[in-house]
Amino acid sequence: LQGLARVPRAFGTMLPLLRQGSLAARSGPRWRASAAGLPRSFATPTVQLYQYEICPFCCKVKAFLDWQKVPYSTTEVDPIRKAEIKFSDKYRKVPIAMINNEQVNESLAIIEKVAAEMKLDLMSSSDDTKKWLEWVDKQLAVLLFPNITRSFGESYQAFGYISEVPSFSVPSKVANRMVGSLAMWLANGKLKKKYNITDERKQLRETLEEWLKCVGDGPFLHGEKLSLPDVVVYGVLSSVRGLDAYSEIMESLPGLAKWSAAVRTAIGPSMRLEDPPVVRKLGPTAP
Which residues, at least 6 apart from 162, have a Cβ–Cβ distance to it below 8 Å? Predict the structure, then answer.
């Protein structure tokens, strides 16, 4: 029971209640998208990302790195023991990145740091990027957890990502999946009450309809040009790819499926460094 009580904290960055990426608690800059792929005079930073594979904030960072063609390595963190981030005494959540051997915590701070290292021109006071950076954390991400833990079966399905982590031992995979699934299913009601969620599927659909309304004829938010809001919204949503919640929402919103496919194509292949590559059925690299 003591181990079970630790699990909600262990999986904390998968829960939007921590709001680690939210602009509400920070006065970050306004952003606009750069033209990814243009020649730049910079040394590509080295990035090591400590993550949970289906953490929406981690997936947001990975989508940005893929978009900007920055190679990166990942270390999967055991959500119960967290031994992989024992070097971080004060900050015990994910994502954590080591960028040129400097520790950077939280998704937006990581994106900002990589952008600064690459001398990207991402800031502007003339667009709505800040609005969408806040929206993706405070409106979209808060709805994902309740949608993937409505039942023990759905929760168990979500924690199937644990079985795809090659660095975890079999006992660790079994323990994390069973304990995590149960704990997150039990936490579902508490999270719904906290965020005044009564019908998680309906509210997720309505929230994404708001996004699609702004995308309009697209194919992206700002017409033909892929922008940072597209990338972060796509990244957060891709965290639940392969799950029932993802399939249902894509089927109910054909426009979302079309936009998501366009963004995935525009971003291009994953820049993650893996040897050998891991084939995953869940998360951003799932089919």
Answer: 168, 173, 176, 177, 180
pTM: 0.87
Tens-of-pLDDT digits for all 287 residues of the chain?
A: 333 334 444 444 454 433 444 333 333 333 434 444 445 556 789 999 999 999 999 999 999 999 999 999 999 999 999 999 999 999 999 999 999 999 999 999 999 999 999 998 776 655 789 899 999 999 999 999 999 999 999 999 999 999 999 999 999 999 999 999 999 999 999 999 999 999 999 999 999 999 999 999 999 999 999 999 999 999 999 999 999 999 999 999 999 999 999 999 999 999 999 999 999 999 999 99
What pairs with residue 47 in β-bridges? 72, 99
